[in-house]
Specification:
The chain has about 325 residues and is α+β, with helices and mostly antiparallel strands. The chain is built from six helices and 21 strands.
Length: about 325
């Protein structure tokens, strides 16, 4: 009798502290209920190897989080696209590619990745490049004028008023510093006739009246509105032909406290998952398969949106952001 009681207590103890687990079963079926000819579909990397699409490696697997001036492709004048990528021979350099509306490379420039872009000019401490303005890669001298004395406040105010009165575009930057030395992060850059002048001044010259005079100068850090991020493609640029599910995993919640699950997921149970391959057809007729995909079993296969894709009606190509077999971040270029 005592033995039976101990067995019951042991079973109760074991079942009262169950951990979360997954139950997996083989599926091997199309979820949309019809069969397709899978031999017509290729991975995007297979299409690249057969030279049917182009590929731009934007960042390598070793240092995937490099510094870029812009991460999404930029489009200019509805016919040129700019892409920034790492310049592999030199870790402190980036290269910016210029593509035409057909996706062909027409120009490029290598720049210091720590340079600054203001009003479409590539600017460093003592130089600037107007490539985005006029395709000129010449490194031009940036004239630096210093207003480091407190007595220069009046001169600086007079300068700002003159720039405004003559409708000369200018950019200003103010960065307070705890350092008692001269803070050359405070400056004004004028863009008169695309010949840049930089006026540096000390933090000690900061005054409320000066900031009020600077006001809004309508010149923003980075690119002007002429350069816009290429739009992300909506799901209507492709059609999901089917999803072939290899397995179906069902989540079986236990009743053992799991603080990590509570912290990371708010205590919510994960969805049940199908694992398999997506088969899609692009508007251009290219048939792609995307393997090793997972999908919540309460979702429709047509809701697939794994590809981060860029397109524009003025362009004759689509760009798909993905990761290649070497774990490089890449952009694949596909004709429409």
């Amino acid at each position: 009798m005592k033995f039976c009681i101990w067995v019951i207590l042991l079973i109760t103890l074991l079942t009262s502290c169950r951990e979360d687990r997954w139950s997996s079963k083989t599926e091997n079926r199309f979820l949309l209920g019809h069969i397709i000819d899978t031999t017509q579909y290729k991975t995007i990397e297979e299409l690249y190897l057969s030279r049917k699409v182009n590929k731009i490696i934007t960042s390598d697997s070793i240092n995937n989080q490099g510094y870029f001036h812009f991460y999404s492709p930029l489009i200019y004048d509805n016919k040129y696209v700019y892409i920034e990528k790492k310049y592999h021979p030199n870790k402190d350099k980036n290269i910016i590619l210029k593509l035409d509306h057909n996706g062909a490379l027409v120009d490029s420039i290598i720049i210091n990745k720590y340079s600054t872009i203001i009003n479409n000019f590539i600017i460093e401490k003592d130089s600037y490049i107007s490539w985005f303005i006029d395709n000129n890669k010449e490194i031009k001298q940036l004239e630096n004028i210093t207003y480091f004395s407190k007595s220069d406040t009046t001169k600086l105010k007079r300068l700002i008023k003159s720039l405004k009165n003559n409708n000369i575009a200018f950019y200003s930057e103010v960065k307070n510093s705890s350092n008692s030395n001269i803070d050359t992060c405070n400056f004004i850059i004028s863009f008169k006739n695309n010949k840049l002048q930089k006026f540096n001044y000390s933090k000690n010259i900061h005054s409320q009246s000066l900031l009020e005079i600077i006001g809004d100068n309508n010149i923003s850090y980075d690119f002007s509105e002429k350069y816009k991020e290429l739009s992300l493609a909506t799901t209507n640029f492709y059609n999901v032909d089917n999803f072939f599910a290899n397995t179906h995993k069902t989540f079986i919640p236990g009743n053992k406290p799991d603080f990590n699950l509570y912290i990371n997921g708010g205590g919510m149970d994960p969805c049940n998952l199908f694992y398999g391959t997506y088969f899609i057809t692009l508007q251009s007729g290219i048939k792609l398969k995307n393997m090793n995909q997972s999908m919540c079993d309460d979702k429709k296969p047509q809701e697939f949106s794994d590809y981060r894709s860029y397109m524009d009606k003025s362009l004759n190509f689509i760009m798909i952001s993905d990761v290649d077999p070497h774990l490089n971040s890449v952009l694949y270029i596909l004709k429409k």
